[in-house]
Task: inverse folding
């Protein structure tokens, strides 16, 4: 009889994505887990396929509902299984909303939270990615895009700011580790400061970055996210003040301060852009097939998820 899984890992796709986008990550995780004595199960929710423009809170609620449904039908899981969760791009924000719902439902009391990990997630929004990206998000990504651009006006405050408070930040605090993967350049969709949860851009203009090892040619730095000195915490110069209004900069400062209360690990990647589709470096962050550029980033994350337990 096959042993029940003791560690459940959820993978959540991003905007206009599909579960199949993460099948390579899923297979890589299972292969890495097979080298250990762990019993790992990997779940890729399908509830948001074709529906990612409807709003972060709506998509996040669907993720939470699917996770709770899986918990109820846990014939292949140990009763007290631990869990990790991974979000790609906008999927990372879906996850952060879902975690708040799960926290409210007592999920964290029943299951130890291991690793929260995101690939190129716009934790601070896309308003600093440039006027064109912010405009495109609002126009083409509808409600989700307005939330990313901090232009959702149907609530008392932007949803991204709400995600940094209350049950949402409490849920993040329950994880043993929080890890963000951010692309240092060539990333037009989600710029480095937003993905890396920082107020500086140390790689602006940098060239010929040295990888951490031959095994990971597209990873250039791994370290905890430093919390700025008090006198520098108000500095948001890394965010494009040409397209970010003063009131939005105040929201940016509030989000950064709230997230910096927690400890984070940051993995800086140097995945090159190309002349192909707009924001192509963003696509390289989570590849779909073996042998593609960025496969080493996926492998690094899989090792982190499987072995840091």
Result:
């Amino acid at each position: 009889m096959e042993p029940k899984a003791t560690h459940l890992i959820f993978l959540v796709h991003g905007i206009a994505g599909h579960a199949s986008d993460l099948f390579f990550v899923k297979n890589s995780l299972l292969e890495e887990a097979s080298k250990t004595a762990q019993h790992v199960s990997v779940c890729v929710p399908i509830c948001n396929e074709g529906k990612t423009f409807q709003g972060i809170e709506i998509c996040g609620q669907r993720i939470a509902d699917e996770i709770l449904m899986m918990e109820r039908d846990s014939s292949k899981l140990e009763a007290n299984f631990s869990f990790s969760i991974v979000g790609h791009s906008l999927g990372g924000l879906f996850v952060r909303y879902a975690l708040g719902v799960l926290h409210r439902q007592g999920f964290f009391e029943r299951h130890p939270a291991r690793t929260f990990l995101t690939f190129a997630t716009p934790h601070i929004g896309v308003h600093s990615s440039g006027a064109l990206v912010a405009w495109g998000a609002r126009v083409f990504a509808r409600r989700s895009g307005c939330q990313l651009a901090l232009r959702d006006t149907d609530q008392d405050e932007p949803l991204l700011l709400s995600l940094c408070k209350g049950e949402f930040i409490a849920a993040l605090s329950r994880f043993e580790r929080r890890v963000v993967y951010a692309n240092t350049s060539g990333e037009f969709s989600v710029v480095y400061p937003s993905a890396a949860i920082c107020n500086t851009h140390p790689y602006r203009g940098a060239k010929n970055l040295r990888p951490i090892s031959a095994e990971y040619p597209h990873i250039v730095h791994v370290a905890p996210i430093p919390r700025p000195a008090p006198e520098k915490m108000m500095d948001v110069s890394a965010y494009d003040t040409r397209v970010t209004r003063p009131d939005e900069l105040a929201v940016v400062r509030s989000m950064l301060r709230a997230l910096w209360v927690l400890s984070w690990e940051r993995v800086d990647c140097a995945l090159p852009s190309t002349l192909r589709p707009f924001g192509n470096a963003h696509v390289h962050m989570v590849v779909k097939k073996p042998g593609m550029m960025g496969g080493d980033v996926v492998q690094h994350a899989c090792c982190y998820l499987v072995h840091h337990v």
